[in-house]
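Take a look at my tokenised protein here and describe the backbone shape.
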Amino acid sequence: MDADTRARFEMRAQIVKALAHPTRLFIVEELSKHEYCVCELTEMIGADTSTVSKHLSILKQAGIVKDDKRGTTVYYQLRCPCILNFFGCIEDVMQTTMQERTRLLSR
């Protein structure tokens, strides 16, 4: 594998790692509906502000979300809504896996 290919796969891994937490998956799904500030997300998640801010920082670093500061409030939104296509693929894998398990158990 050459250096450019390796760098591309490392970037992919960074994005997948950023998504590899239930809270961050929740945040991305909620941001697909509309933008939220940290305080709103904190209330929805039921965690403290610093924890939610850390999750948002990880998602921002990976290029999944972007922020927009308005006065003293920072609003977050999806940077690339196409990430939801990835979620659809995950749901397909989950459904296929459950169907196969059900089929194996019914034997």
The chain has a mean pLDDT of 94. Residues 42 and 51 are 8 Å apart (CA to CA). Helices lie at 3-19, 22-31, 38-45, 49-61, 83-105.
